[in-house]
Structures are given as structure tokens and as C-alpha cells.
Fold these 4 entries.
Entry 1:
Amino acid sequence: MAGQLESTRESPGIHEDTTPWPRLVRSSLHATALLASGFLAGSGGRTQAATITPDAATSQVQFDVAASGRLFAAGPGGAEHPIEVTARFVFRETPMTGGVRREYEQASALISRGETAVRKTLADDAGEVLVTLAGASPRAWLADGFLSHEEAELLDTPFDPLLAERLRPDAAVGMAESWELPDDVVAGLAGLDAVDSGGLEAKLESVEDGRARLRFSGTVVGRVDSTTSRLTVEGTATAAATPGQEEGDWLIAGPLSRLEASIEERREPGWVSPGIDVRATVTMHRTTRDAMSSAVAATGRLAAAAVDRPRGTGSAARLWHRHTRGRYTMVVDARWRMIEDGPEGLVMRLIDPDGMVAQCSLVPLPRAAAETPPVEGTVQADVRRSLGDQFGHFTESEAVTRDDGTRIVRVVAEGAAADRPFRWVHHVLTGPGGHQIAVTCMLEPALAERFAAADRELVAGLIVLPDPPARTAGDPGSQDRR
């Protein structure tokens, strides 16, 4: 095991050009990971699992997003890449207490970055989702399982129909009368954590044949993962209208039947995303027809069911990830954002409303003898060796065996990197068959309270997978492919 535990030598406090997805282009994670620039990561959210009960009729929604622009790294001469995204979502939506239920017929995005293009499609066993609000941000989740990071990002769009309904005024309005949207609604529509300045204003533009046309626009400056973002938004929406009690007033009721929005966004590079300079358009059309739109092509159907998706009481606060070569599977806090997932292992960063808290790497290790899993002394020696002159001293050490037979050795080391104090929390998990995974979290001691027990919670949701069963001559897939 010597040399396998790799320390993260860059300080989390140093600005880096790592890249997860900005909200308009988030599904590009695995596509852009193919590029040597090293760009890439993800996003998450927290919500409570609402008690969902039907209370209104089902409608059909078609929702399209198109974005183009560039991704750029920090600093003069930083790497820059053109990007284009086209996405289509077609689903039946039923309003529920606490949110909506969506049954997807189509959910896919085509992401092009330079010469590289990839299509992402929602898996069939994730086709029925619940969507509730985390604050003012819509978050999708499964009632009896867990979405993957990639699936959650695919379904996370600007101007989600659930929140777009709040473009309507709360009371009757007169012709050409305007109203300001609350900051939390603006933040949710634009994909911001908070609004610092500016906002969006809507007004009643016209009423014809019982249909009101609303126009909205504005410029917003806010924050996403502690990174500054500036957006310019303009668009229109249509909804049913009935005369109010006062002459000339109109009540705008019922769900929006149509929405069109244009969004220009410039966001500075951050801890878990590149800089972006993009223009996006969003179009939503809602109808009460039962039949799905004929625009759904056969190639746009949902993908095959995901392999080994964990089942249980779902929540948008937790997401699923499976190692590409089947070494482990885990359900983790959605605040862990994926930065890189490649041959050298998985790198994630823990983000809270105040910024980055810690960085964590997961690295599969060589198989150990099942009867002699690593002990504390062995792990300590390897940690000391891998940290080198960054090592200071050990503060904690323990070894436990879980009910599933997985042996876990946990050691905590204090030291310094780039002349700053750091804490490294190392776990080595050994499955019953000897398969091993190393988990290393790095943080500044001053962030320990915000970090809390994040490493233990991560490890608790991590399952070390055994070797896949050997195929026999009679097994499907064992055919001679010469």
C-alpha cells in the first residue's frame, strides 16, 4: 500500500482552474473531462423529503434549453474553450403538496466543447422524479432511490417550470402595471445562491382572449459557490387571465402555458467551476393534452436503467456515484462536488454557502490479503511517507469493522502546506474480499466546525465492491468475439 495515499499539495485556499459545470452547461462534466486542460466538476443541493400527495390535474410540458459561449480559466492567458449545449425535456407534470411529480418521456442534452461532443440522457429507472424547492431552488429526487450527480445536473436548469410560476403577480394588476420579483425567486430562476444587487421586474403587457402576456427583464449580480456572476435576463410568459374586482384589473391565474427567456451570463472562475461567458435561451410550453408531443424522436427516449442504482428513501440532499470500473459505489451529501473522475481516482470538493470547506480524493488500492487487512500502524507509516515534509503529527487513529465486514482504518494528521496549517483525514476501507479504497480529505483546521463529520458520513455511504462474477461458457456476453 506504500505510496498509494496521495496528499493534496495545493491549498484549498489557492484559486485554481478546476471546472465543474456552471448552471447553463453543467452536464458537460464528463465530456470536458476528456480534454487535457483538467477542467471539471458538479453541483448539489439540500431539501427536505416532502410528503407528496396529488392535488391537481396532470399537464404536459416541453422544455428546451440552448446555450453557447465560452469557458475560461483564471488569470491572464488562462485556457479558454468554446461550448454549446442543446437540451430537451418532455414530461408529464402533476402538482403535489410540496412540489410536483414529473414523468419524463425525454430528457437529454448534447454538449459540444471544441471538437468534443457527448450526449447525456436520463436513465429509464430515474424517469419518474419528485421536484421540490430547496430554499427557492428546484431540486429533483427519487422517492425510492438516488439520482447520480450527472442525472441531477442534467435536470437542473435555469427557469425551471416549478419556480417560473412565481413570475405571476400575487394580486390583480392593471394593464402595463409592473411588479418586482422577490430576491429568492430571482436567485432560484437564475441559479444563484444569493442576489447581491439588481433584480427582475415583470409587467402585464396585454390580455387577449383570456390569455395574459407578461414581460420580464432585469440585470442581476449575485453569487454561486462564492463566485460572482452577472446576468442580464429578458423574456415573456403567457397565462390565463380573468377580470379583477376593479375595472381594468386582471387576475393572472393558473400555470404558465408558455415561457421564453434569454439569459446572458458572465461568471468568474471559482473553486468548483470555470469562468463562463454564455448566452442561453429557454422555451417552455405547457398543455393539458394527454398525448406526448410528436416532437419526441425515437432517439430521444430515456436511456437504459442504471447499473446497481441504490434504493432507499430518496432525497435531493444525497446523490449517487459508481466507480467507472466497478471498484466502489456510494451515496454522498450533494454538497460534495466532483472535480475530476479519471484513472488516478475521484476528486471532490465540499462546498457550503460560505465557500469551499475541504477537498477529498478516492483512490482504489491494490487488493490486500483478506485475512490480514491493514492495521493502524501500516496506514500511519504510509501517510507519513506520502505527506513527506508536510507531515507534523498524528492527532487521531482508530480501526473498526462495519456490519458488512468492511474494515476501516482512520487516521488524522496535522501539518502544513504552502506555509499554511492543514489537516489530512485518511480512511482505508478493506472489503471482505480484500478490495481496498483510500479516502483522503484535506482541510484547514479553522474550517473543522464547518467540516464536522463530513468524512465519516462520506465513508458510511461508501461500499467496496467485490470482483464481478466470472463468466462461464453459457453466460450471455461470454461469446467468442474474435
Entry 2:
Amino acid sequence: MKLALIVLSVIAFSAMMASQNAEAQVVAGEAFLLSGSGYSITPTSITDATIELLFTTARQGNSVTLDLSRGSIVFDEKELKISDFTSTALRNGQIIIITSKASDLGGEQYTFRASARIVAKAAGDSVYTLTGAITDSSQKTSRVFYTVLVSEFADQAPQTAQKEITIRFLKGASSPGEITYKEQIGGARFQFLSEPRITIEPGTTITFLNEDIVSHSLKSGTGEYKANKRTFTPDGKISSGEIPPGQSWSITFDTQGFYRLFDEKYPWIDTSVFVIDKAKQEASKLG
């Protein structure tokens, strides 16, 4: 009952905020990370739920379509991988409509339908309320309610003509209880790496420099929240090994796509890399 009251309060507050004027976020020709948490409601239980979508956007007529790179949902203590994804952003990006299929680790099939409405926007980030329904093969339907952050992968030119970029493990990043060490984004949001997300051209080399007082390591994979705790699953594509204090590790990204890198020992430390050929992207827009 207590959780139900919390859900209703969040929905009521979100509806009030959504009625306020908010500038649209999702526009064509960009890449975004949508992530958030909330609740799933079945006939017998209310449990934590999370969602994470990595997508690019393109113009189609008067609307913007979303092309999913990777997506997952956790609801009712099940983890679903999203497939057959169709999504459109309407009203200049203020509303997002989603229809997709999904499957859990045991192969059970689901359908997922949802809509999101913008609440507020800051530079590069927006908050949406997202409500939806997840239906299994027996036609049992669960409702999901999320508050999600949609973050744009900012265009950033390489720091040198040789396409070399340095991302730093910030000093003290291994000790999240000590907030004084963390760098801030826009004076508000704390971070543990100097670049929590970045867009680069193919062939760019990123050097990860460890300015912390302990060793760190990075692996690629996917992340989700379970019981309000973030977890990551390695995909075996990238692994740095130990990076001691004062040392660095470099990797060149030749293939376009999304890459999520995380530190297994310190799961709050992660970064997202979006690799795209901007020249080809601009040519496709003109074509």
C-alpha cells in the first residue's frame, strides 16, 4: 500500500510538471541515452523497475524516428532485452511513443508499449515521465511507471589533429561518500570520470588516465538497475586490465556504434562512447 501511494504521488507530481512549458529534447540527427527507474505493478505485487535505451534519431516527414542500438527493461524481477523496436518522437520531441517486443533470459516473449512526455529540460539533458504496459505470452499485463533522464551525446571534436582524447578517473572516484573531490557538470551534477559520455569519430584513440589513489579497470557491457542497485554485465569486447594510480590505458575505436564502459570493482564509475562518422551522417541528411 505504501508503494502504491508513492507511485500515485509521483504520477500526480509528474502530470503537474508535464503541464508546464518545457523545451523539446529529442531532435533528428543525434544520439541519446534514455535511462530511469520506477515501479512495475502486477495484480499481485509492486516492484522496482528500470529501463535503459541507447538510440539515434532521424527525420521522417513531420516526426522524428528513434533507431534503437541497445535496450533493456527490468520489471517484476525479470530482465528483458528489447527487440523489433519502433518509436516516434512527436510535437517537436515533447512526446515519445514506443512499441517493441522483448524477451527474458528464459526465452519468454513479451510486448512493450509505452509513451513518454517531457517534464523539464536542461543543457543536453531532459526529464520525461514514461508509462507503459508489458504483456506476456499468456496475455497477462503489467503496468510500468518510470521517471527517465534522456541525455544527448554532445558533439565533441578531438582534442588534437591526431584524434586523441584523454578521459580521467577523477581523484577519489573510488570513495563516493566523499563528495568534495568530485567534479561537477554545470555546478549541479557530480561525476567520477571527466567525460561521462562522449561522441567521437571512427579511428579516435581515447586514453584513460588514472588520477585516483587506487587501481581501476574498464570493461564493455550493459548496465541495469536491480532493487535500486546498478549492475553491469560484460560483453567480452573490451577489457583494459588493471590501470594503477598515475598510469593510463588507451584504446582506438574504429567501428561505429555505442560502447558502455564500466569499472567492475566500482560500479558507479562508467562512461558511454558513441562512435559515428559525422561526415557520412551529414551527407545522408543532405541526400
Entry 3:
Amino acid sequence: MIRMNLKAKDKRSGISALPTILLVSAIIIEIAVIGVILASTLSNARFSDRLASEALGAARSGAHDAILKVIREKGCPGSLPDMAVGSRSAERTCEDDGAGRITIESTGSAFTRKKRIEVIIGIDSITGKVSLQSFKEVSL
């Protein structure tokens, strides 16, 4: 009889072990999923910052190139073609207000991120001297 009671007791303890194992496994899986989600979020944030920095670099390069074209042509060169900066691009516009001020806008693109630089240049109509009045990042 003692042997029968031990066998019955072993069966009952085995039944309670299964839910415990399932509960512990579920908790471990939840912790792993949370870890993957956090790692993905942090990685996307860093990637987004990198793209924003590359877009700003492309916009600055486009603005500097447009300034050189203005200096060489002694005025607004009219339409400025898009410029490739490595694997990124910069769209540029040039507007002359007729009073010796030229406004250049350069928008750099890196995948989904865009940054814009606005440059205001003054040109003396008598001497032809070019002076940089403003070079700043503006919101899109």
C-alpha cells in the first residue's frame, strides 16, 4: 500500500509541474520579445539621426556649391540642377530680389530625411563684392 500511495503522489506532482514550466517559459519569452523591441527602437533612432546628419551635410554641400556659382557668374545663375553628394542629393534654388540680395535654398535628402539650408548673399552692384549675410538651417 505504501508503494501505491507513492505512485499516486508522483502523478499529482507531475501534473502541477507542467503549468509551472509553461508559466516560466512564457515569462522568459516575454522578456526576450521586450529585449528585441527595445534593441530595434534604439537602432532605428540611431539610424534616423545618421540619416538626418547626412541630409544636412548634403544640403550644406549644395549651398556651398551654389555660392561658388553665384560668385563665378556675378549673380544668380538662374536654375541650379540637383546635385549628387555621394549617395545623397541636394535640390537647390536661387532667387535674386533685384536689390543686390540673392537667396539660395538647398534641401538635402537622405532616404526619408530632409534638411534645408538657407543662404542670403549680398552683392554690391558697383564693386561686385559678394558678402555672406546669412547661412542657416531652416525648418521644412
Entry 4:
Amino acid sequence: MNDLINYLPTYERNSVILQKLLLAEGLEIDEQEMIIEDLSNQMSISTATWALDIYEKALNIKTDLTKAYEERRSVIKSKLRGTGKVDKDLIKLVVDSYTNGNVDVGFNGEIEVTFNDVKGVPPNMQDVQNSIENVKPAHLGIFYQFAYLLIKDIHNVMTLNELQSTQINKFAFNEVI
């Protein structure tokens, strides 16, 4: 409302009628701005919320409302990136959509994916595997390597509170996929 009142001449700024009118208009304008901002957010996969199911339907992805928005966005990005000639760059693009980068992909008779920044197995690893299976040739195997916390990463580096708050699957004695 104050923004609208500032456009009035000084002698009209104290009018109760104009103040109430501008208050009503100001609230309406604010609501329209929020609607426009929300719609703008839905236009980008990185900020979309309620429009994720539209993207999923367009890409023939089964909508799973139990997954977090970030996980659903990763599946969508992966599907969009997973077209073209299958090479290590394409596989890296697909995996990067889930991990926000710092993944190495190599080929030595099979596809080798190394997670460098994420400690332990990423929480959405099943989605990563499904996406890679959808783009890689069927005759190629795939091997995943994960980064874990080692003694040198925690000894005299992490406090006891930090250790207690770190999930057990981040340490180097866990599972292999």
C-alpha cells in the first residue's frame, strides 16, 4: 500500500478513502505478483514444484509423490539429458543430474562411474541406476565406485558431535552395489 500511496500528491495521502482503496488494490497486486512468480518458477525444472508431474507425464516418467522434489527433478533432468550418442560424456551428464557434478565416468570394458563428492551411496542411487540402464547399451556392464569417510578424514579433523551426527553409511565399511 505504501508504494501506491507514494504516487499520490501529498495533500491526498491522508485521505482515509484513498488509503482503504489503495490497501485493497495493493493486496490484489501483491497476490498477482506471487502468482506470476510461482508460474515463473514452474517454467524451470530446477525450481518447479506442482508442475513436476506435467514434466513427468510429458517424458513418460511414472510420478512418485513420495519422492522429494529434488529427486523428482533429477529424474526429469536425467531423462532430458539422456538422448543422443551414448558415450562417457552422456553417462556423466545423466549421473550429474542426480549428484550436482564431480562424477568421473570411464570405460574399461564396462562403464565405470566414480562418485567423488557424495560420501557413501547417494540416497537416490536406484534412480541413477535406472536412468543409466535406460541410456546405456544392453551389452555393457556398469560398475559404481563411491567415496567414503576414511580414518584420515575424521581423526583429529572431526569433532565428536560431528561424528555422532554423520550417518553410518558415509563410512568406508558399508555396502557395495
